[in-house]
Known about the structure:
alpha/beta
Amino acid sequence: MKKKCFTAPRIFCVGQPVYSMKIFSEKQYCGVSVSPGFGEGKAYVMCPFPGEYRAAASLAPADETERFYQARECYCRQVGQQVRQLEGSVSQEAVQILLLQQALAWDKSAELQICDLLEQGCCVESAVDRVWTGLGDSVPERYADFEDVRRGLLHALAGVQTYSFLKAIPEKTVLITEDLSPAMVAHLNPKRISAVLCQSGGSHSHGAILIRAMEIPCIMQLPEILKVPAGTDILCDASAGQVIAAPRRDSRICFYKAWQRQCVNPYPSASDAEENLQTADGSPIQIFCNVSSAEEVQAGVLQGAAGVGLFRTEFLFAAGAPDEDIQVWEYKKAASYLPAGQPLCIRTLDPSRDKTPDIYTGQRGIRYCLAHSEQFKIQLRAVLRAAAEYNAVRLLLPMVTDVKEVEETQRLI
C-alpha cells in the first residue's frame, strides 16, 4: 500500500504554464510585506506535488536506522556548504539561522521518536515524515523551519540536492512559491531574483529574516498567487505588499513612478517620522523597533525608529551560550546606533525548541533563567556592563508569573 508523504517542488521553466495557459489579463494581489523593495520580471512558479514512500520497511530496523543517520549527515553537510557560501555577505544573525537548521536536525527528542518508529517496523521515510510533521504542527509559528528539516532529510534519503536548481534560474525572475524556508533562501541568487512571492508564510519566520538580510523584495500571504501562469510579467511593490500580474500600460506607469520616488528617498529620516507621528491633539508618538541583532537596530533607526522596545537575545544563544564579553560587545554595538538617551530594552533569554534547541529544556522565560543561574548571571553582568556606558539600556524579564521571580532576579543582580 502506498502512502503520501512529502511535498517536493515540481519545477517549471519560465514560460511553461502551471495551469492551463488561457489569456491572462491584469490581476492585482495584496499580501503581507516581508522584505521591502520593488521588483519586476517573469514569473517562475514552484508548485508542490505529493511524493510517495513505502508504507512498511523492507530493511531490518538496524539498516533503516543507519539510513537515517546517513541522511542526517548528508543534510547537515549541505547546510554547512550553504553557511560557508553566505558568510561575509549577510549578517551573523542570518548565518545563525542556518546553523539553527543544523541543530534542529540533531534534536534528540526527534531522533528518539524516529528510532522508536523504526523499531516498530516503519521505513525511515515514514518515520521522518511523521515525527517532523508533528513537531511542525506543535509550533505553528516555526512550521516552515521544521518543514525545511523534514524536506531536507527526505530529499537526502532520495539522493536529491535540495533547491540547487535555484542558483541557475534566469535573471529578472520573480519567484512564486508556496512558502519560504531558510534552505530555499540560502540558494537564491539576488542578482537573478527580482522578488519572491509566497502563498503562505509569516514575516517573523526564519525564511523571512533571511530574505530581508539578502535584501530581496518579498511578499507573503498571497492565497491565489500560485494560479499565476509561469512566464507572466510581474510587477512587485513589496513595501506596500502589492503585486500586479500581466500589468496594463497605465499600471506600469504608476508602478515606475512609485519606484522612482522610492529610489530618490528610500527611507524617511527619523526627524520626518517624528513630525508625522502624533495624536489628534498634537502629542508626539515615538516608534520603537523589535530586533534580534545590532544590525537590525541600525536598519530600524534608518527607517525612523526612535529606540528599541525589544531586543530578543535568543539568536545570540542559537549555537550555544556565548561568553560575557561577546554579549557585552553585541549590546553596546546595538546601543551605539541609537540617538543619545533613547532606550534599548534587552529581554533576557527565553529559550524554545525551535530557536535554541541546544539549550532548550522545556522551561521558558524567567523560569529557565533562574533554573540556570550561572548562565543567567553572565547575561545580567553583560547587560549591566553595557548599561554602565549607555545609561538608556533597560532590562526586560520574560514570562514573569510570580513576584518571587522578580525578587530572585534582584537578589542575583
